[in-house]
Amino acid sequence: MSEGLAFYAIFFAAIFTNNILLTNYLGMCSFLAVSREVDTSMGLGWAVVFVMTATSALNWLAYHYILVPFDLTYLRFVVFIVIIAAFVQIVEMIIERVSDKLYIALGIFLPLITVNCAILGVSLFMVIREYTFINSIFFGLGSGIGWMVAIIAMAGIRQKMARSRVPRALVGAGIALIIAGIMALAFMGFSGMIKIT
Amino acid sequence: MSPLAQILIGVGAISAITTLLAIIMVIADATIGNYGSVQIRINKEKDITVEGGRTLLSALMDEKIFIPSACGGRGSCGLCKVKVTSEIGEHLPTELPWLSDDERKENVRLSCQLKIKKDAAIQIPEELFNVKEFECEVKSIVDLTHDIKEITLRLKEPAQMKYKAGQFVQFEVPEYELTSEPVYRAYSISSQPSRTDEIELEIRLVPSGICTTYVFEHLKVGDTVTINGPYGHFYLQDTDARIIFVAGGSGNAPIKSILHDMLEKDIQREAVYFFGARSKCDLFLIDEMREMEKKLPNFKYVPTLSQPQPEDNWEGDVGRVTDAIERNIDSGENTEAYLCGSPGMIESVVDVLKKKGIPEDKIYYDKFA
Ligand SMILES: Cc1cc2nc3c(=O)[nH]c(=O)nc-3n(C[C@H](O)[C@H](O)[C@H](O)COP(=O)(O)OP(=O)(O)OC[C@H]3O[C@@H](n4cnc5c(N)ncnc54)[C@H](O)[C@@H]3O)c2cc1C
Ligand code: FES
């Protein structure tokens, strides 16, 4: 049970000690595909922060007010996925409608993250760990920021490495996975600060 | 609770949730995603009304105004540029790689990326009004090499096409195994404009390419196909400068068209044609080119093989086209160059020609990208 944990503890834990990308290795595909430039990574990162926060709130409500009362918690995978997909679609439409600037900065990344497993992961962790509504929102926010921190760091490293000579067999995803592994080791340095499981 | 009731509740709940979301989506599509109809004013004279929220390219296409688009709207060819003269918002990141600084300032846009959400005004070259859609019948399919076919299309409706030698058309690939919607690919016309009722294409197989696989494995004599065109600025300039033609593979197509056109119009300019191939089995229409040399006394054909095989008994030039140009051309004075082929080949040939002293604005090319 996590009632004892304050929302700020969960928030910081989600960024550092329990970084969804570097400790759970979720959200890898877009992480590898879009981490070539810091600018685009930042755009994608913000989109993930926004969608994670909002969908953890929505999914929390759906879980506790629909699935639990009808004893349907085993349906959570399907329900969470369709809610995420529908939410992303609608947000994309709204952004496209209201602001060109926002669409250029954020909107074009939204379709990329509908299928980002880190987003589903956050919703699932939040019900498994039995977070309260507020804690869930901060968990979503923290996880999103953690994901963004990781992808920006990765993009920075890959930009720096653009000119380095990487062994032929490792060019591309190979070296990216090795870098991700080393980053994960570095993040292990945070563990012990706060613990949430 | 009985197991049956449990199953029913599960199915019912999931149906209810997805139906609810679907209804929300439909409503959103009809309200947020609905931009009504919008007007596009073309060249200050013609107004068309289209459904809002679509790309400019597809909106124009529906009105039978054809903008060249070799990649079929994926934003990977950069051909579908259109100048927008009304305020329409910033360039999208997907457009920027294709636009020069000047084009960005003039608000040139990639029409396949730009969605039209409000009334707009655009400027397109007059000649695009000439572009039409043609229904054709496949008259013949001939193997030129192991991976290049010559396709002759008889024009049915309209029955004639007016174009300049060197221009290209777009071939419509209908929906089939490799594509769930029609796609368009550019092919240069290899016949000459005097043959007004038919056009000929030279198509090279790109392994697992959408259009070329269709042409190589599905297209049969007698089939009906749709093309649109003509497009492009790759034609002979009206000067008396010496001409260097350079091509590889199916890049031969527009040059063959230009040569036949020169012959018919009795244009006796000095010209040399460097054709690059790997080995003899990649060469084609050699007899026709030798014949051309006899009829156009100032024309010379220089095929060059990069990897001649022992059984080829090859006595001509050996090496890449760039080597052949290096050897055979001493100065680029009063010379124009026309190149056609893969982007890589074109870039390296442009470098050599510039070294020979041919200014960049006298080098014309069609990149088969
Ligand atoms: C102005 C213009 C004129 C052209 N004229 C001709 C012509 O006369 N004859 C001709 O054969 N082609 C010509 N092309 C190329 C043609 O339009 C297609 O791009 C090509 O035939 C591949 O189409 P596809 O649908 O089979 O392959 P796609 O399904 O589009 O591509 C499959 C894969 O192959 C790659 N690819 C695409 N084109 C090539 C290529 N040329 N070589 C190697 N890899 C490629 C793509 O990047 C992709 O990964 C021309 C292109 C342009 C822009
Ligand atoms: S159609 Fe190819 S870039 Fe627009």
Task: Please name the defining characteristics of this protein.
heterodimer; A: 197 residues; mainly alpha; 0% strand; globular; B: 369 residues; Elongation Factor Tu (Ef-tu), domain 3; 3 domains; 6-stranded antiparallel beta sheet; 6-stranded parallel beta sheet; 8 helices; binds FE2/S2 (inorganic) cluster
Give a quick summary of the entry.
By secondary structure, chain A is mainly alpha-helical.
The average pLDDT value of chain B, as a whole number, equals 91
State the distance separating the first and last CA atoms of chain B.
64 Å
Number of helices of chain A: 9
Radius of gyration of chain B: 25 Å
Distinct bound molecules = flavin-adenine dinucleotide, FE2/S2 (inorganic) cluster
Oligomer: heterodimer
Fraction of residues in helix of chain B: 25-40%
Secondary structure: helix percent of chain A: 55-70%
Based on Cα principal axes, name the global outline of chain B: globular
- Computed Rg of chain A: 17 Å
CATH fold group of the largest domain in chain B: Rossmann fold
Explain what you see:
Chain A is mainly alpha-helical and 197 residues long. Chain A has one domain. Helices cover 69% and strands 0% of the residues of chain A. Chain A contains 9 helices and no strands. Chain A has helices at 7-15, 28-33, 38-67, 76-98, 100-105, 110-113, 117-128, 133-161, 173-188. Chain A is globular and about 60 Å long. The model of chain A has no long low-confidence stretch (mean pLDDT 87). Chain B has 3 domains: 37-128, Ubiquitin-like (UB roll); 131-231, Translation factors (Elongation Factor Tu (Ef-tu), domain 3, Beta Barrel); 242-367, 3-Layer(aba) Sandwich (Rossmann fold), CATH 3.40.50. Chain B has helices at 3-31, 56-62, 101-105, 210-217, 252-265, 286-295, 321-328, 343-355, and strands at residues 37-42, 46-51, 54-55, 81-84, 108-110, 115-116, 120-123, 132-143, 148-157, 168-173, 183-188, 198-204, 224-231, 242-248, 271-277, 299-305, 317-318, 335-341, 363-367. Chain B is globular and about 90 Å long. The model of chain B has no long low-confidence stretch (mean pLDDT 91). Bound molecules: flavin-adenine dinucleotide and FE2/S2 (inorganic) cluster.
